[in-house]
Design goal:
By secondary structure, the protein is mainly α. It folds into two domains: 51 residues, no CATH class; 67 residues. It contains six helices and no strands. Helix 1 crosses helix 3. The N terminus is likely disordered.
């Protein structure tokens, strides 16, 4: 009958099932027709398979819970939601990275800042001190000799006005 390694009844069942589905070759079709004409057991199996096939085809098909439009809308809404979440994570991560880089940069800059501040303080302090020294009394007192004339410059006149009067 067949050259399969299955037991004959399993091979016969598969062959009958393929015959019912129209999936056999011409040679296999002849073989099934011979089996059906020679064996009442095969005819009974064939009848049961026909009945089973008719019952399966007559089963009611369940109605879907959702229409195709509802299902596709739900799928695309989920995809959009995932894309929004991905964008939020990317923007949030970028913002966090920027804050972190700024913090690290400011920490590294703090090492240079005290030197810069000290240099600025020294230069501004020396300018202030020189101004204070120039406006106030001199650091070292200068002896005034009685025979020398002291130069008195009034603060409310400019030096140019005094030189023109002489």
């Amino acid at each position: 009958m067949t050259n399969h390694s299955y037991p004959p009844d399993k091979c016969t069942f598969e062959l009958l099932s393929a015959y019912l589905d129209g999936e056999v070759t011409a040679e296999q079709r002849k073989e099934v027709q011979e089996l059906l004409s020679n064996s009442e057991e095969i005819q009974g199996l064939y009848t049961r398979l026909l009945y089973l096939r008719q019952e399966i085809n007559s089963l009611p098909t369940p109605q879907p819970e959702y229409s195709a439009k509802q299902l596709s809308d739900a799928v695309f809404a989920k995809v959009d939601q995932q894309n929004k979440q991905r964008k939020i994570w990317l923007w949030g991560g970028g913002a966090m990275a920027a804050v972190l880089l700024t913090a690290v940069g400011s920490l590294m800059n703090e090492n240079r800042t005290p030197l810069l501040q000290m240099a600025q303080e020294n230069s501004s302090t020396s300018n202030k001190e020189s101004l204070v020294i120039a406006l106030n009394e001199p650091i070292i007192e200068m002896p005034v000799e009685n025979n020398q004339e002291t130069l008195m410059i009034p603060l409310d006149h400019s030096l140019i006005d005094l030189s023109e009067n002489k």
